[in-house]
Amino acid sequence: MPTCNETNISRATFLLAGIPGLEAFSPWISIPFCSMYLIAILGNGLILLVIKTRKSLHQPMYLFLSMLSITDLVLSASTLPTVLSVFLFNMREIDMDLCLAQLFFVHTFSIMESSVLLAMAFDRFVAIRHPLRYASILTSARIGNIGLLTIIRGIGLHIPAPILLKRLPYSRIQPLSYSYCLHPDIMKMACADTTPNSYYGLFTVLSTLGLDSVLIVLSYVMILNTVLSLTSWRERLKALNTCISHICVTLLFYTPLLSLSMIHRFMKNALPLSQILLSYLHLLLPPVLNPIVYSIKTKEIRKQIMKIFQKFSTKRL
Questions:
Q1: pLDDT category of residue 265 using cuts at 50, 70 and 90
Q2: 162 near 103, Cβ under 8 Å?
Q3: Whose CA is closest to 302, among 240, 239, 245?
Q4: 67: exposed, middle or buried (C-beta count within 10 Å: 0-12, 13-18, 19+)?
Q5: Residues 6+ apart with CB under 8 A from 95
Q6: Is the pLDDT reported for residue 253 higher than 70?
Q7: Exposed, middle or buried: residue 145 (CB in 10 Å: 0-12, 13-18, 19+)?
Q8: What is the pLDDT of residues 38-87, one digit of tens each?
Q9: How far apart are CA 168 and CA 96, in angstroms?
Q10: What is the pTM of this model?
Q11: β-strands 170-171, 9-10 pairing
Q12: Are 114 and 207 spatial neighbours (Cβ–Cβ below 8 Å)?
């Protein structure tokens, strides 16, 4: 825990960090980061446009996909300003209030993404286990309620985070580990006992990401049990094929997160660079790859995107 005296406890200014050892290459590193943000914005925006303009896609699976795209867009927008300011302009200082606001949005929408992935797992379970009752179970009203609960859960659980952190004393200038603000990173900069913050963070992680991942696994255990009860191999493959996209985006979201957690718990001497890179992968990779996965693996989405590009090409000609 950092030490403070009466003369340096004040309103803190945090210093964002780039990638250790690669500071001289920051302008070059900004190029792939800019490309990733551009792909994330265009890809998720295109998914939302396709779903909104095609009534044939106003079905539960695609409505949940639109929720995922909105979550990815906001998550990208939450980290975009500080990541680019660090790597592109070498502007590292961030006011405490702005840092806490970014922290709130990053963690809130990470939890919301986890909630949406759980809802999508439930959607696949109902579609395979109860195909004849699929539309009657997942009505528009119920999907809307699931979306509302996702928002309430994400916001409600993370309102205490900036409040608990702001009440702590800090030195005037504090160096952070990333080019964006995260709860554990800010917490360890405090000059006071952070036990309540630590317990709060552990409770939040276990009751959201931990619980969601367990429920998603249980959903797929029941899905697999249902699929194995089918007599035809063709029907089994058809049923599993509808889950591939969701399995891919779930692994994209949880794999870096679980790897980061394992490093924190069991590899105390691991290089800081590995933790930083995993954190970037966790926050930046899903918004980039999720629309690509669904565009490639979902025939209806792929067809509609091709139609949009064909119309655009025809107009230009």
A1: low
A2: yes
A3: 245
A4: buried
A5: 13
A6: yes
A7: exposed
A8: 999 999 999 999 999 888 889 999 999 999 999 999 999 999 999 999 99
A9: 12
A10: 0.91
A11: antiparallel
A12: no
Query: What is the helix (H) or strand (E) element at residue 95, kind and residue range?
Result: strand 93-95
Provide the 3-class DSSP secondary structure of residue 189. Answer: coil
Token pair for 57: 């896609």
Query: Side chain identity at 197, as an amino acid letter?
Result: N
What residues pair up with 9 in beta bridges, in sequence order?
171
- How many alpha carbons fall within 13 Å on the CB side of residue 283? 26
Task: Mention every residue, 6+ apart, whose C-beta is less than 8 A from residue 280.
Answer: 178
**266, two tokens:** 């069991």
Give the residue from 189, 190, 215, 201 showing the smallest Cα distance to 158.
201
Length reported for the chain: 317
Q: Taking CA 179 as the corner, what is the angle to CA 176 and CA 184, rounded to the nearest 5 degrees?
A: 45
State the Cα–Cα distance between residues 17 and 14, nearest whole angstrom: 10
